[in-house]
Give the backbone structure.
Amino acid sequence: MAASARSEVVIADVFARQTTSLNGKWHVIVDPYDTGYFDYRHVPYDESGKVTGGFALDKPAKDKTDLVEYNFDTSPTLKVPGDWNSQDEKLFYYEGSVWYRTKFDVKKSAPDHRLFVYFGAANYEADVYLNGKKLGKHIGGFTPFAYEITKLVKAKNNSLVVRVNNNRHVEGVPTVNTDWWNYGGLTRDVLLVETPATFISNFKVQLKAGTTNTIEASVQLDGADKEQPVKIALPKLQVAAEVKADAGGLAQFEFSSASLKLWSSASPTLNDIEISGGEDQLKDRVGFRSITTSGQDILLNGQKVFLRGVAIHEENPLRGGRAWSEADAKLLLGWAKQLGCNFVRLAHYPHNEHMARLADEMGIMVWEETPVYWTIQWTNADTLANAKKQLNDLIARDQNRASVIVWSVANETPVSEARTKFLKSLVDEARALDGTRLVSAAMEVRGDPNDANHKIVDDPFGEFTDLCSFNEYVGWYDGLPEKIDHIHWSIKYQKPVFISEFGAGAKQGFHADATTRFSEEFQADVYKRTLPMLEKIPGFSGCTPWILCDFRSPKRPLPGIQDGYNRKGLIGSNGRKKAAFTVLQNLYGDKAKADAAK
Ligand code: GCU
């Protein structure tokens, strides 16, 4: 079923708003049979039939609008934000429902203010109830959602109940098969957001195409009195503009600043921006830059750029479990910076908002991705609607992040007419929402039946993307490392060529000769051989080797070596670097010097 988006509200730039954190310990009830959701037969009640506890559902809550709650007060707790798998070993493999409950009081700073409850993410679907009333259902494990609760709250003891279910579904996005851990839970910040009666729900600011000093902007108001003046100011540049919003609450701007400094990796300039509409004021820090392609070059502010990247999954290997905080982002992007990266691929789903915000500050460019991964149900209309909604939610959240230069709509999806049609509609959606960034996906590579060393990239989806990007694993899934030296490529598209994955597995600390699989030496050898091979490809414009850190995957059981981890990390699950980290660090260092000398 497509997400009931009707009740969701977009509240962007949430950390700059008047918020109260609901992070902390929430009471939980683990509900493997979804008793609280579907079936009241086992709910305790007295001889008169009066419910003495449990969910008094006279029909499944998914249709019901109210809910009589279990007595959560004596139930265990889990930390929010946080996946449940890494918090409680009884839940390590758990896939099912967990009911969360927290209580909060409310004291608005003005009587006409509005209140919302905001979730950074919940994997995979969340049914949200406040004081027994259903607010909505969100589907998609990695995108933010919010509901208005202005008319439902009371001064004291509000009860917020959330059913989070991480069961996998064939019609889901992603579908049932992924090479990453299916972490369930309220995995990111939960906040109460207070706004004026009419507030700024979202805004978009960008450099006008073809200019270096003109800013295009739009501001969307939400509230009764939408036709009112809206102002944008960049105080440090002494520039401001004011327009009247239209009846739909949309205000559109175009203004210039002679002193606008562009954002780049070398000089990640961010501008303080202040937006006011009605009684609402919103601040952010935004960089302005252009990202385009010309032939087989990627141009940042008109200058050719090579993307020295690395792929990242959203895990903190030192703590275990889903990464979610600014500290987690500092750890992961700090390692990428040490590697000499100017680019990261946040695989395979939208990461938490702190990543793109910190990348803005650090000057690291970013590829963000929706989890259209492997064998999605290409002909299911609900599946497409789900993928589009997740793409919309991602773009609405991160469209002002200068670091984000690529929206990726898929990873390694088997070529078929239905698949290419599905992906094309996502590309169209991305371009309609945001024409200022590159759109791509990790596409398919095929072998030449007559020449084992000849690789062909002619995935039909390549017609529609800005980059010709694909994953390749010669030396790991395809032959031994020495095969890498003999590979030659035929690429159909005259576009920048980007290798979105290559690599090999190694257990950190396992040393042997370079022909022994899973040794650090084997992995280092694959890196030593791959970069020179890729350099020979005309239009080679960057790569994100797979992957920064080992990560948990149910598909990697090999006892004594994988033990439930995918071991292709350059850093082990113990946080220690492998030999290949230094190999890539040196290769990127040489590359950066060579590019600077051009
Ligand atoms: C694929 C896939 C990754 C996976 C990797 C691997 O390319 O995109 O998600 O983890 O291969 O096999 O390690």
DSSP finds seven helices and 33 strands in the chain. The pocket of alpha-D-glucopyranuronic acid is lined by residues 179, 348, 411-412, 471, 501, 546, 566, 568 (CB under 6 Å). The two ends are 54 Å apart (CA to CA).
